[in-house]
Amino acid sequence: MSYPNELKYTKEHEWIKIEGNNATIGITKFAIEQLGDIVFLDLPKVGSSFKAGGNFGTIESVKTVSDLFMPVTCKVTEVNQSAIDSPESLSVDAYAKGWLIKVEIENVPADLLSAHEYENYVVGGN
Amino acid sequence: MSYLNKTTSHAVVLEEPLLFERSHEGAYGFGLPELDVPKINSEKYFGNYSRQKKARLPELSESEVVRHFTRLSTWNYAIDLGIYPLGSCTMKHNPRLNEEVARSADICELHPYDPIQWSQAHLQIMYELQEDLKEITGLKAVSLQPSAGAQGEFAGLLLISAYHRSKGKNRKTIITADTSHGTNPASAALAGFNIVQVQTGVDGYVTLESVQAVLNDDVAGMMLTNPNTLGLFEKNIEQIAKLLHEKDALLYIDGANMNAVLGISRPGDFGADVIHFNLHKTFTTPHGGGGPGSGPIAVSEKLVPFLPVPLIEKKNSEFVLNYNSPKSIGRVKAFYGNFGMFIRAWCYIKALGAHGLRQVSENAILNANYIKSQLKEVLNIPVKGDHLHEIIFNDLNQKENGLETSKLAKALIDYGMHPPTVYFPLCVKNALMVEPTETESIEELDRFINSVKEIIDNNDSSTIYPKRTFREKVDEAKAARELNLKFKFNE
């Protein structure tokens, strides 16, 4: 399974692509495979603010409903409407078309994982 | 002959369109008499809300409607057809004696507005049920009002909130565990609390340390399902209760799994302050489509003043409804709760008696452990330990053969059995949660066990289950994504 090197990761299986003050956030291929067919996404409104670790939405699959956790302290600037309209697109292209939200970063916590660290974490059975 | 052919065969099952599609103009099943009162102008009373066009209701005769629903019912599955091992749901046989009693005219033709002196026998049944539930839990008082488990949780949390407010405190946090029922955090949120969840240890038990780590003066209480959703009895429960009480936080027990501990362990004895029952699980009132549910709560001394009104009490030899309880949280249900369920639960308790109830739990535990012993070689048991009334497997050692949890569950449908609970509890990856209950015979348990083994032996990656049912495997993802609940007329 691939974990692009240019991204950072969380133990809750979000990925984040940081570009200056802005970032794009989604969930990892690993998480999507664990969830199975995704049927519903609940994402925040543009303009809402979150602390790192805060719950910013839910993702529902045929198996379960999971919370989504914010990797950084930020304000939401854009929401991927096409992911909401067709959540199956996440499993096709988790790291590009399957992004969930774009944000303006206020603070980046020190504990984000590198691709290598995240891969070790999921291989470890979590 | 394979188990598959022994267990199921093809019978005639009739296709059935929607009532709207069956409708034909002029058909009816019930005629109204001529209007013998003055006709009113509804627009005068209801303005814009008055209907302008005739409602397009389906038009059918009585026999057509009866056949419609009977045909649909033949596509379904029920506890009266076979084993229903849905973990955490306690799908046990509903004794026919309960039904006989509940349907007697003396009981079911009562109106809640009937004068109290006409309803003495009914109040006596409710009073005796309260007394029995008190004894079963070792707690001080019972309210029968909540109409289901989740409403019992909600009512219990309102009591906890009222208790703290009566002391001038506004505590806002409830601790839950990852082995609790999902309704626990949901009810706490609905009752206005913030939720902190503790993770169980690798052995499946909530640890003292994890509770200690989140316990502070804002904690109103902790909700624990015991036995938990791994089928394990929380071995630290007494110390957890003590820890909570030292901070004046209360212990809520989700009693959905009471079927494992009747006559063996009493929540009041290990420090519970409030517990809800699911009469429809433990005490054989019908559920799973046959409801309604019933979720009485039992409470410790501390919470008695806040119980919902009316309280059903015995004054001398008379049964009364007491509304005079100034600190009460008020009503949580119209009238007195789901009365029909009280009759069935009362009848079940009286028929079995104390020893019989203990035997219920012992046999429920025995049945689950029989399944565990027969399937542990072929299915992985992710959390080891002394399982009680339910056993949690997962697909760890079958997944590489392409037999994941959902496939095994769907395959069981072909064998004429309801699948176990799947993908719950969430703390177990791809869980398959089997609760056979005490009312299955060893022959039926063997039928289940042999079916699982045959599915594993015959597994090939190309088979899609179920294939012998009237509707073959449905696309669950498509159904969820493109919900279509509305009939569109062909204009």
From TrEMBL, chain A:
Origin: domain of life: Bacteria
CDD domains per record: GCS_H (cd06848)
Cytoplasm recorded as keyword: no
Free-text comment on the cofactor: Binds 1 lipoyl cofactor covalently.
Keywords assigned by UniProt, alphabetized: Lipoyl
Matches recorded under Pfam families: GCV_H
PROSITE patterns: BIOTINYL_LIPOYL, LIPOYL
Keyword Repeat attached: no
Example GO BP: glycine decarboxylation via glycine cleavage system
Ranges for domain Lipoyl-binding: 22-104
Positions bearing N6-lipoyllysine: 63
GO CC list: cytosol; glycine cleavage complex
UniProt cofactor(s): (R)-lipoate
Record SUPFAM superfamilies: Single hybrid motif
Subunit structure: The glycine cleavage system is composed of four proteins: P, T, L and H.
Function: The glycine cleavage system catalyzes the degradation of glycine. The H protein shuttles the methylamine group of glycine from the P protein to the T protein.
Family, as annotated: Belongs to the GcvH family.
Protein name stated in the entry: Glycine cleavage system H protein
Organism: Fluviispira multicolorata
Phylogenetic placement of the source organism: Bacteria, Pseudomonadati, Bdellovibrionota, Oligoflexia, Silvanigrellales
Gene this chain is encoded by: gcvH
TrEMBL record, chain B:
Residue intervals of the Glycine dehydrogenase C-terminal domain: 361-457
InterPro entries documented for this protein: GDC-P_C, GDC-P_N, GDC_P, PyrdxlP-dep_Trfase, PyrdxlP-dep_Trfase_major, PyrdxlP-dep_Trfase_small
GO cellular component: cytosol; glycine cleavage complex
Cofactor annotation: pyridoxal 5'-phosphate
Pfam families in the record: GcvP2_C, GDC-P
Domain Glycine cleavage system P-protein N-terminal: 58-311
Catalysed reactions listed for this entry: N(6)-[(R)-lipoyl]-L-lysyl-[glycine-cleavage complex H protein] + glycine + H(+) = N(6)-[(R)-S(8)-aminomethyldihydrolipoyl]-L-lysyl-[glycine-cleavage complex H protein] + CO2
Record key words, sorted: Aminotransferase, Oxidoreductase, Pyridoxal phosphate, Transferase
GO-annotated biological processes: glycine decarboxylation via glycine cleavage system
Enzyme class: oxidoreductase
Domain of life according to the entry: Bacteria
EC number: 1.4.4.2
Function (record text): The glycine cleavage system catalyzes the degradation of glycine. The P protein binds the alpha-amino group of glycine through its pyridoxal phosphate cofactor; CO(2) is released and the remaining methylamine moiety is then transferred to the lipoamide cofactor of the H protein.
Protein name, as recorded: glycine dehydrogenase (aminomethyl-transferring)
Protein species of origin: Fluviispira multicolorata
